[in-house]
Amino acid sequence: MTSVLIIGAGLAGLTAARELTRHYRNVTLLDKGRGVGGRLATRRIEQSRADHGAQYFSAKTPPFQKQVNEWMQAGLVNEWPLQEGSTEFQHPRYVGANGMNAIAKHLARDLDIRTGERAVRLVAQDSGWRVETEVGTTYQADALLITIPAPQVLALLSESGIDLNSTGLSVLKSIEYQPCIAVMALLNQPSHLPAPGYLKYEEGPVAWVADNQQKGISPNQPSVTIHASHPYSEAHLEEDMNAVGRELVNHLADWIPAGSVDSVQVHRWRYSNAERRHPEAYLAAATSQPLLFGGDGFGIGNVEGAVLSGLAMAESLVSRLLPT
Ligand SMILES: Cc1cc2nc3c(=O)[nH]c(=O)nc-3n(C[C@H](O)[C@H](O)[C@H](O)COP(=O)(O)OP(=O)(O)OC[C@H]3O[C@@H](n4cnc5c(N)ncnc54)[C@H](O)[C@@H]3O)c2cc1C
Known about the structure:
Layout (H helix, E strand, L loop, with lengths): L2 E5 L3 H10 L5 E6 L10 E4 L2 E4 L10 H12 L3 E4 L12 E4 L4 H8 L3 E4 L3 E7 L2 E6 L4 E4 L1 E4 L3 H11 L5 H9 L1 E2 L2 E8 L10 E3 L5 E6 H4 L7 E6 L1 H7 L4 H11 L9 E9 L4 E3 L6 E2 L6 E3 L8 H20 L3
Parallel strand pairs: 1-2, 1-11, 2-7, 11-20
Antiparallel strand pairs: 3-4, 5-6, 8-9, 9-10, 12-18, 13-16, 13-17, 14-15, 15-16, 19-20
Helix pairs in contact: 1-9
Flavin-adenine dinucleotide binds next to helix 1, strand 2, helix 4, strand 13 and helix 9.
Protein name: FAD-dependent oxidoreductase
Pfam families: Amino_oxidase, NAD_binding_8
Organism: Nibrella saemangeumensis
């Protein structure tokens, strides 16, 4: 029975897994996190919800628009009408109705997912791959899909002593991510952010602030999510996150008065958006056993790119590498 192992249960890995389970019974995902979703991340803070990874997404391609329509029909996704009265947003933007992570949980239903399993070593075998995890578990599969950010892939390959050919290596090395410091502030009264509940900045320490209540994901208690700019995030990534979080909140005192802030939490994303990507939706390694790399570092990037990458990896595996 053909088996597939997928490293990374973010949007790309989950999408690939859902497609592959239509063809193969033995599809397993590994994720180092406690839950699924990766950068589709939502935190519950008391009675509030805050998205601290992806904030919204658009749909530019028919396959993804079809997927979004299905999510909307299932009540999983809502439109956030950012384009109303805005010159920045020309097309609809969508958000998870109960936070972005709920989309990942929806995709994860009925899949075989092992969380808390960080892959630390890959071993090519006569037939397929062996993957060892930090906690000492070993998995075997005929085919391997890797959907983690390219710098982490390179580290994993190097620790495993696997040499890709020079083309494969240069593709992975060409993909670059920006860091982002994300701050979630729990409020005891609504923020002063104007409708529809966001501000974008071209310069300064803050790039983006969103009101999670106006966004519709936190009806019971207000909170805001702040994303630091990439230069600021880069410069402050190794500093004390509590101090950095406070500084970013204070910077927005006109919109978030000091007395309204009950608590502040900070998340450090070393890899947020893939600013330099490989143009194709995935990369098939020139190894004797099937090995594919995908995720938002490939194709059009972002949420939509991760889904399209997952679909393309699955299609490639089914049609070319592992004919049914
Ligand atoms: C701050 C921020 C803001 C963003 N804003 C937007 C936005 O507004 N709109 C938009 O469209 N996109 C946005 N994005 C990007 C979007 O979130 C990503 O493009 C998308 O979620 C990537 O999905 P993925 O599956 O490719 O990767 P990920 O979600 O990163 O999934 C990879 C998974 O692999 C796991 N993993 C890593 N290493 C290992 C290992 N060794 N072993 C096992 N598991 C491992 C991780 O835990 C993770 O769950 C944002 C991202 C961030 C961080």
